[in-house]
Structures are given as structure tokens and as C-alpha cells.
Design a protein that fits this description.
251 residues; alpha/beta; TIM Barrel; 8-stranded parallel beta barrel; 12 helices; globular; binds phosphoenolpyruvate
Length: 251
């Protein structure tokens, strides 16, 4: 059976002291709660090592927000898959819409990042989703299909089974405008069917597909109750321990 997952994308927020305090609150909160999901935090790269130290002593998992498409070398400012592996990072977000928009990341680059992460045993959380204009033109399914096929469908079935997919309609990210449960379920079922056609039903049934976009403690339960929604990738609401934990309790 596939896993329920709630992952927090902190983006470029928190100083070191604030980060440590937030991790501590999440870990303490987890001790008092029986969760029916895996809880992942994706803090800025600078804090991954300390997050991994906490994770070692708790049920928390740690992910990075990005990785270089290169394994090593003269790429100033970049962080590689082996570096993430060396501080025990288990997951890494790939292709977040902010990386696609502000850093021009292409489907081909995201394929390389995915390959490197898998080589180092790190599970990619692959983001896909349409912008508002694409939904208004009713081409959201084609957009998501292209993102997934061009970045991921070169993988073997074994490799693919290590992925987590996050459907994040770009118009819902950080806007307070959430996809309706019907819109989320419709796209998640479409993605699962796409995986099934390529890799078979068993793999498709095993892959967790998360929803992302203004998910909060008030709407998480309704979103997660859909059969193909296996949790969430949470931005703003992951920056407060109480909200993040409430979302994780929505299963
Ligand atoms: C995100 O950035 O992945 C995200 C889902 O953000 P928010 O929850 O703030 O919309």
C-alpha cells in the first residue's frame, strides 16, 4: 500500500535559530501524536545537516529543496546529490514551479536531476502543474503529461517506484486559492493512470501523489480524503509547527 506523506517546503525562510526552533517544535509535537503519514521537512540547504541530526533521533524525514543537475565540479553556488547524501538527506524536491519560473529549469534538466538523486538513493519529489492561463485554456492535462513524460518516463519501473509526485497547480501556490477536491482528484487520477499506462497498475498504485497549493489545516482533510490524493506538499503552512502538525493529522 502506498504511503501517506506530508512534506513541508520552507522555501527561503527562517534564520538558523528560527529553523532549529521550528524543527524542535515539530519533533516534540510528533512525539505526542500518532500520525498516519510520513512527515518530511525541506528546509534551506544550510540547515539540512542539523535537520538530519534531529531526524536521526525521531520519526521526522528530511528533504532538500533543489539539487544540481551536475554531479560535481566548477558550478559555484550549487549543491550536488552526493553532498545531500553525505548529510543523510532522504528526499529532494525537483522542478518546483518557482525553480521552473525564476531559474528557467527545463524538463530535460529535471530529468538529469532525477537521475542523479536516484543514483545516490535520494527520493525525488517531482513537482508538476499548470499555470492559470493553461487551466483557463483547458490544457492542464497536456501540460502535466508533458512535464512527467519528458522528465521521468526514461526511468525503469524500479527507479520510478522510488518517486513521489506532487501535483501543484501554479495558480494555487502561495495565493490562498486552493484547487477544489474535485479538481485535485481529477488530476491525481489522470497522473496515476498515466503511470499505469507506462509502468503498469502495480507501480501506479504504489506511487504517492501529493497535492500542493495553499493547503492548510482547514482544507487538508477534504483534499486528502480523495482516493488518489496521498498527502500534501505544504509551503506557507509548514512554517508554523502547529499548522504543519494539524495538516499531518488530517488522515
Ligand atoms: C509550495 O510552494 O510547494 C506550496 C504548496 O506553497 P503554498 O502551500 O504556500 O501554496
Amino acid at each position: 500500500m502506498r504511503k501517506n506523506i506530508v512534506a513541508g517546503n520552507w522555501k527561503m525562510n527562517k534564520t538558523f535559530q528560527e529553523a532549529e526552533e521550528l524543527i524542535d517544535r515539530i519533533v516534540v509535537g510528533m512525539e505526542d501524536t500518532s500520525l498516519k503519514c510520513e512527515l518530511i521537512i525541506c528546509p534551506p540547504a544550510l540547515y539540512l545537516e542539523v535537520a538530519s541530526d534531529y531526524a536521526e533521533e525521531s520519526r521526522l524525514s528530511v528533504g532538500a529543496q533543489n539539487v544540481s543537475e551536475h554531479e560535481k565540479g566548477a558550478y559555484t553556488g550549487e549543491i550536488s546529490a552526493p553532498m545531500l547524501d553525505s548529510v543523510d538527506v532522504e528526499y529532494c524536491i525537483v522542478g518546483h514551479s518557482e525553480r521552473r519560473k525564476y531559474h528557467g529549469e527545463t524538463n530535460a534538466q529535471l530529468a538529469k536531476k532525477t537521475d542523479l538523486l536516484l543514483d545516490y538513493g535520494i527520493r525525488p519529489i517531482f513537482c508538476c502543474g499548470e499555470v492559470l492561463e493553461e487551466r483557463e485554456k483547458a490544457i492542464q492535462f497536456n501540460v502535466v503529461k508533458k512535464q512527467i513524460t519528458e522528465s521521468l518516463f526514461h526511468l525503469s519501473a524500479d527507479e520510478f517506484s522510488n518517486l513521489v509526485i506532487a501535483y501543484e497547480p501554479v495558480w494555487a501556490i502561495g495565493t490562498g486559492k486552493t484547487a477544489t477536491p474535485e479538481q485535485a482528484q481529477e488530476m491525481h487520477a489522470f497522473i496515476r493512470n498515466l503511470i499505469s499506462e507506462k509502468y503498469g497498475k502495480n507501480i501506479a498504485d504504489e506511487v504517492s501523489i501529493l497535492y500542493g497549493g495553499s493547503c492548510n489545516p482547514g482544507n487538508a482533510k477534504t483534499l486528502f480524503s480523495n482516493p488518489d490524493v496521498d498527502g500534501g506538499l505544504i509551503g506557507g503552512a509548514s512554517l508554523k509547527a502547529d499548522d504543519f502538525l494539524k495538516i499531518a493529522q488530517s488522515f
